[in-house]
Structure formats: structure tokens, C-alpha cells
Amino acid sequence: MQIAPLSAIGDGMDPGFGVYVHWPFCAAKCPYCDFNSHVRHQPVDQSRFVAAFLKEMAAVRALSGPRTVTSIFMGGGTPSLMDPRTVEAILDGIARQWHVPDGIEITMEANPSSVEATRFRGYRAAGVNRVSLGVQALNDRDLKFLGRLHDVENALKAIRLAREIFPRMSFDLIYARPNQTVEEWERELKEAVSYAVDHLSLYQLTIEEGTPFYGLHKAGKLVVPDGEQSAVLYEATQEITADIGMPAYEVSNHARPGAESRHNLTYWRYGDYAGIGPGAHGRLAIGSGKIATATERNPEAWLQRVEECGEGLVERELLDFEAQADELLLMGLRLREGVDLARWQTLSGRDPDPAREEFLIEHGFIERIGNSRLRCTPAGMLILDAVVADLAC
Prior knowledge:
- By secondary structure, the protein is of the alpha/beta class.
- The protein is built from 15 helices and 17 strands.
- The N and C termini lie far apart (47 Å).
């Protein structure tokens, strides 16, 4: 079964309704990672967690009402540590709560170190039709520095298997690593695009508070490229990917036309999504408003809460129109297609400040697409947070 093209499941600009399932367990914690991931040295009771996922789905379905799912994403943590029967049970549970048409995008994140052909074929049989591999680097020195459990040989084996078994495949790389030159990154990226099918996620290394890298960076023991060097690396990334027909459709994501991640487009187009599992976030339209949801982050505490209360939600915030407008701007300006101005004006109740907009246009940071959309230029993407903050005032 192939994934239906965007045009076959609704207007290409329709944000859609996604379901995100968070599997919080990893074999090891990477030193740069601030995601909700946890290492457990005893086997995880997957059947117990499945039962809790199904319970929480029912609770979220009561909030969302009947919806048609346009994408499903299993993230983590390391979802490829799940047994294929666990994945099948989760997907069956989603289909019992919401309408899941044939051919929608169903993505699973996987680490090369946890990949094997039997497990991959089990995920495919369960319904997964797109895999996203956390490769992160294509040299063993930097893989060791990043705390990855795989080497380049494992990564290439995982890529080959994914290409053989799944209709769609993407993989991640991290660049702007310490002492990385532009020439080194260009060679690595050109090698990467030779393995890619239709999608790549290319992230600059960021130092997040609370991670081991943060402590090293603060102590001066880990030095990452400065702003100017990072900009040169970013520009080289854009040039190489555009040349091979996989331009950026979002700050860090590149795809051949039509192969963009449907699920991530739902986030960036500010659609609705149900968040299931420990530490999962959601956005759900309720009447004329929208609520932001978040669940308990600790897996065992989440499990106990769901078993006792039927759900793991610890946050359920009603977002006013101003908050929604800010989130729409924050997410939409990440996209090459930009923001629907009419939608933003409806939520914010105002037009963009003419003086601020004119200043940003004159300096080459934003541009209008006709009269209907506003987007960042490549120069604006380099200072995206500042552009968003300026326009949101």
C-alpha cells in the first residue's frame, strides 16, 4: 500500500488532524538530547503500556470528538524498541477511536542500533509506511561524540533496509558540530543525499539546558560554531539540497515536491493533533476555541495516572485567540510556504504592524506572496526567532 499524495487526502494547505504517540524509552540517553526519553535497565512491560495508551486514546477522543486522521507519528524515545505487536495494537486502537482512511502517512522513528529486518517487516505488516531514521552523522568519530550506539556501517544497513521495506524513508543528520568545517559538511551531506529517497531532516546542533552538553559548553569544554560559521553551514546546506531537487520546505526539513512530511506539516500549519503517551503534547479544536494538552512526563507516573484516572493529562489550557495567533505565526513562518495572513488576522483581530512589516521587508527578512501569505526569506530564516518576535508585537 502506497501513501496517498497530499492532493488525495484534502487540500494541500489543509492542516489536517494528526495523532502523535510517544514511546519514552531509549537504550541510552544522548548527551545533546532534551526530549522526554528515559533509560530503563529492566524490560518494559509493553502490554501494560499498550493498555494505558488505549485508555488515554479514549479520553482524548472524548475531547476531540469524531475526526478523520490525516497522519500518525510514533516518536520518542526510541519507538523501534517496541515489539511489532505493540505497534499493531496502538494503530488498531487509533482506528477504533477516529476514522483512519487507507493510505494515510504512518511514520515511526527508529535508531539504526535497534534496526533488524524482522522487526522492520513486522512494523510494515502492522501498518507503518514511513520510517524516520536517527542517523545523525556519517563518520564514526562524530557518532561517538554524539553518544550514538551505532556506527556508520549500522547506519547504512538501516538505510538500505528501510529503502527495501517501506514506501517512504527519511533520515536525520546533525551538523554545526565542534570543529566541523564547511568542506567536511559539504562532503558528508553530498554522501547523505546519495542515500536519500525523498526526504532529509538536517538540524544544527543546539546546546539545550539540562543536557550533558550544556554543562560542558558552559565550562568552555565544548565549543560549537559561532553565528557566522553556522550561517555559512546553513547556506551550504540549502544550496546542496536545492541542487539535487530536495529544497527546504521548512527550516530544517528538505523533500522532493510531494514528499513533505504530512504529519509535521500539520504542526507547522497549526492544525489539530492528539498527543498520546508520557510527555506528549496536543492541540485540539473545541468549539470555536483550541486547547493545549500535555501529559505527565515520567513514564511510570504517567502509567499509574492513566490506570487510576483513565488519562495522563496534567495540562489542559484553553488558548485565547491572541495565543493562537502567536502560535500560528511561530509555526507557520518556519515553512517556505509561509503564513496564511487571513487566518492570522482572524485570530489576532488586526493587520501586521505596517512599520514593522516594512522594516523587515526592506532589510530582506520577509516577503509577501501576493496579498494572501507572508513568509521568511532565506536571510530571515537565519534569525527566525527575532522575526517572529517582531511581527507578533
